[in-house]
Write a structure and sequence with these properties.
The protein has 185 residues and is an alpha+beta fold. 52% of the residues lie in helices and 20% in strands.
Length: 185
């Protein structure tokens, strides 16, 4: 007899007992791994995690050490550019002292040129002078040396004994000043 155009004997051949692939797909009873197998897997996982932790710790330490070295170098060589530019000012001063036939005019001219060089270096490195004559006294930027009775409003800078300097907006050296105080105070 034939079913679906195939003899019955062929159909029976197709329904042979389960093949190994079918056996693997068929539900199997849950087999619990042995304690030794679980322990071995846990030890392997622990070893992998420990290795990863050691590598991360070493990398963190390397980053910290490199960062420290960079900070040390930055502190050590922070003034390198400024110092190199000051060498030209020093060379000018030494050249002025080496001149044999010095006149007052040539000496004054040389000092003016050297002062312009120095001012250029200061400007390039954001060093500004503070000359607060006539301004209101600022204790963050000025240092009062004396207080003098004056017709000027109290706390007005009357005289500058020594200019102050700022680097960016930080006081490098405060200006030394004389400050007005009210008469009779």
């Amino acid at each position: 007899m034939a079913i679906n155009g195939k003899p019955m004997a062929d159909q029976q051949d197709n329904q042979t007992p389960e093949t190994p692939a079918d056996a693997a797909a068929a539900p199997q009873p849950d087999v619990m791994p042995s304690h030794e197998e679980l322990l071995r897997k846990a030890e392997l996982a622990a070893a992998e995690h420990h290795d990863a932790w050691l590598r991360a710790k070493a990398e963190t330490e390397n980053v910290r050490r490199r960062g420290q070295e960079e900070v040390t170098k930055a502190h050590k060589f922070a003034v390198e550019g400024f110092s190199a530019e000051l060498l030209a000012v020093r060379d000018s001063l030494e050249a002025a002292l080496a001149v044999q036939n010095v006149t007052v005019e040539s000496m004054k001219s040389g000092v003016e040129i050297t002062l312009r060089q120095l001012s250029s270096v200061f400007e390039k490195h954001s060093i500004r002078e503070v000359n607060p004559a006539g301004e209101k006294f600022d204790p963050h930027r000025h240092q009062a040396m004396t207080a003098v009775e004056s017709d000027q409003p109290a706390n007005t800078v009357l005289q500058v004994f020594q200019k102050g300097y700022l680097i960016h907006d930080r006081v490098l050296r405060p200006a030394l000043v004389s400050v007005a105080k009210a008469k009779g105070a």
